[in-house]
Amino acid sequence: MKGREVHMFRSLLVTVLLLGAVTLATAQVRLDPVPVPAGVNLSGTLNPQVAPDYSNTTSGTGYYYPGGVGVIVADDVHRTTSLPIGQVAFGYYSPSVAPDVVMYIYANTGDYSLPATLLASYNLGTLNQGAWAYTITLPTPLTAPADLWIGFSFSAADAGLLIYDPPTVGTSHDLFMQDNQNLYYFGGNPVANFYLETVPVPEPTSLLVLGSGVVGLFALRRRRA
Q1: pTM of the full predicted structure?
Q2: What is the pLDDT of residue 47?
Q3: Which of 15, 130, 200, 209 has a 20 to 30 Å separation from 43 between CA atoms?
Q4: CB 85 within 8 A of CB 139
Q5: Residues 99, 195: contact at Cβ < 8 Å?
């Protein structure tokens, strides 16, 4: 080859290798979930302030996924609104101890992309041993896009999020993330979606309509009296 052709070939080869590296970095790696023992029932109840804009809390698969001590395991959550988040519900199983739990909420920049900006993290303290669902009311509403990654880390090696599918509100792909380093899946049985729900803060107009209804009801009662 001539010098110019060699240079072009090398440039093309470098480009192909770089693209291959990016593909490998975001390729989905198959992992195995862990069955929840028979007879273990989910405790706790959902307590949303308004209707959720993402919900995957209906169909349990009988599995959960323990990611390891301090490892952030996050699911992609595609909400039906981009309203600020007021509450997040999640379900987990911790067979041996009461775990310390931290929740993380990231922006999602696109399908099959790793999390982008960390929007907020919340130290939830020590939660109960066993299978539990918690509804967390955020200290202040979190401004967030519709597309998110929501993750949790546990202080116990055998604690992890419960696997549920399919979402009944919003959508989620068959993948999850660990420590913002790679994408994983379970091979489709079960699908890699976790017990999660997000509840938005009502828009001011909705609150105004609700307030007007309460005032009208109060006035009607006074007239009848």
Answers
A1: 0.81
A2: 94
A3: 200
A4: no
A5: no
